[in-house]
């Protein structure tokens, strides 16, 4: 299906720890994934996301994270979702071959941010659990304009508020970064903001 080369992406991770890849997947596939996400949301198939390991959304974490999510199950995946998973499996192989990262599996959820929703500054690894190695966010938004907001801000120097890189959630862009290294934040948008977020994990070492 897709003979794209992931060389640049893998090199960027090796050199900088993060990579921004426009047009990671073709527009018709991005559109199919977005249409399915909207349809599922309209049927009530997404749940308010929670933070950390807690499964309840409290008034407190509403302000931290305002998106709605649905975890992908491989057995129930649509054709479009399978195509996404195939591309991600190729990426996993390329990372493991080039960088010996030992990536073992991918967990993925759809996410929809209603207008105004944010995800405040955070790290993707949970405290004391370090299986999440690489965060991969594929944006599904057609015709995203700078005024629409919703940028992903990646902080390059630990907890410091500068320097940072802003990524526009334009349909087809894949952003990848080392989960342990970069704090990041989702800014509010004027439009609904849709993405597929995946984490490559290594085998758990804690027994
Ligand atoms: C996340 C996250 C960023 C984005 O889901 O953990 O940081 O741009 N998402 O959607
Ligand atoms: Mn995150």
What does this molecule look like?
The protein has 207 residues and is an alpha+beta fold. The protein has 4 helices and 11 strands. Strand 7 (152-155) and strand 8 (164-167) form a beta hairpin. Helix 2 (27-42) crosses helix 4 (79-99). The longest helix is centred in the middle third of the chain and has 21 residues, at 79-99. The mean pLDDT is 91. It binds N-oxalylglycine and manganese (II) ion (MN). N-oxalylglycine is lined by residues 111, 119, 124, 137, 152, 184, 186, 195, 197.
Strand content: 25-35%
Q: Specify the biggest β-sheet.
A: 7 strands, antiparallel
Let me know the number of strands.
11
Q: Give average pLDDT, whole number.
A: 91
Number of helices: 4
Order of helices and strands: HEHEHEHEEEEEEEE
- Label the overall shape: globular
What ligands does this structure carry?
N-oxalylglycine, manganese (II) ion
Measured between the Cα atoms of the first and last residue, the distance is: 39 Å
Give the proportion of residues in helices: 10-25%
The radius of gyration over CA amounts to: 16 Å
How does the helix and strand content classify structurally? alpha+beta
Spatial strand sequence of the major β-sheet = 1-9-6-11-4-3-2
Low-pLDDT segments, ≥5 res: none
């Amino acid at each position: 299906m897709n003979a794209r080369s992931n060389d640049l992406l893998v090199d960027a991770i090796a050199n900088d720890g993060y990579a921004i890849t426009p047009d990671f997947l073709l527009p018709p596939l991005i559109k199919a994934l977005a249409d399915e996400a909207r349809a599922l949301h309209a049927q009530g198939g997404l749940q308010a996301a929670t933070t950390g390991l807690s499964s309840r959304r409290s008034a407190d974490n509403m302000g931290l994270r305002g998106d709605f999510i649905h975890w992908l199950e491989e057995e129930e995946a649509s054709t479009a979702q399978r195509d996404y998973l195939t591309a991600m499996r190729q990426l996993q192989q390329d990372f493991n071959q080039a960088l010996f990262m030992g990536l073992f599996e991918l967990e993925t959820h759809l996410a929809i941010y209603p207008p105004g929703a944010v995800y405040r500054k955070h790290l993707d690894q949970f405290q004391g659990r370090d299986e999440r190695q690489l965060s991969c966010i594929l944006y599904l938004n057609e015709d995203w304009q700078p005024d629409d907001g919703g940028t992903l801000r990646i902080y390059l120097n630990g907890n410091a508020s500068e320097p940072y890189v802003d990524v526009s959630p334009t349909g087809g862009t894949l952003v990848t970064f080392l989960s342990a290294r970069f704090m990041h934040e989702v800014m509010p948008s004027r439009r609904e903001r849709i993405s597929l977020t995946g984490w490559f994990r290594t085998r758990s070492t804690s027994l």
